[in-house]
Amino acid sequence: xxxxxxxxxRSPADVRGFADFDGPLYYVPTGFIDHADDPNTLPLxxxxxxxxxxxxxxxxxxxxxxxxILPLLALEGWVQNSGRVDEINxxxxxxxxxxxxxxxxxxxxxxxxxxxxxxxxxFSDGGDYNSPDQAIVHARALAAQGASxxxxxxxxxxxxxxxxxxxxxxxxxxxxxxxxxxxxxxVSIDTRHAAVMEAAIEAGAAIIxxxxxxxxxxxxxxxxxxxxxPVMLMHMQxxxxxxxxxxxxxxxxxxxxxxxxxxxxxxxxxxxxxxxICVDPGIGFGKSLSHNLELLSRLAIFHGLGCSILxxxxxxxxxxxxxxxxxxxxxxGGSIASAINGWRHGVQMIRVHDVRETVQSISIATAxxxx
Length: 371
Fold this sequence. Notes:
DHP_synth_dom; EC 2.5.1.15; magnesium; metal-binding; alpha/beta
């Protein structure tokens, strides 16, 4: 495992020390309990799952961050001492309130998004469904296996990927989107190009999924606002071609959180309401193994943004760094383990290649949590 850099350290400071801190604080639900009706818990984003404590994180002078665990039973006293009453009330509202429907999907459940790459060079399945006809057949199969959303992409964003012309990208995705939308499926367009977004929406795409958080094309924000479609904003450090060249963070969890908050606020100023925004921490996009594991261990922090959350870990290279012998298609076990971790943290949508296996695993996890 690579050196832990940009991580959160547990602080020896007492609760009072954090209460006296006058800088920004960040709040991570933890101490998860399956039944949110437990009197010592609060519901996680309106779900049946609850949390019994908050990990409170602050940045350290000179870099990095430190945290302390505060049981909810001690929260009222801490809030009074800290003078952060309004701040905590706002944070708790975001952490506990059920998200509005997203593209017509009930966010009380964890939905599976099926990946459909109409590309010759995607890291896991590039070339498997390279023609529109092959992609349509595959997408329909994923829907039959339980995918609530079909995510159609015509450009690989794997590390080191080459760019594709907008014309080629449009030619790849539009026939697929049109056929699936006519079937009545909920379709998202996975693109960072405004012209592709426009063509995809015209063909019937219901969601814009942009790995650049609507920053990769100067017209993307305008297209998103004008279309009225919900958007998925992902964090990525750098560009796909170079993003894995020594990524660095002061504190990866807080840096990603701050970036996504900034993008949400930019969208709101432009005219996209928060209930039309989903955030994605961007696992594997400009992040080392330790960065990815830090994010996965504190996914629940992103509920504090007040948006639904998308998680994409399927077959990614961080799994291969833990199990080097596994090829991308042999990373299903790690993909499912990280998906269940996302479910445990209250993530509302999970983007995967292996839909049937993921749907089954979430169904079993949900069923056992209800006993």
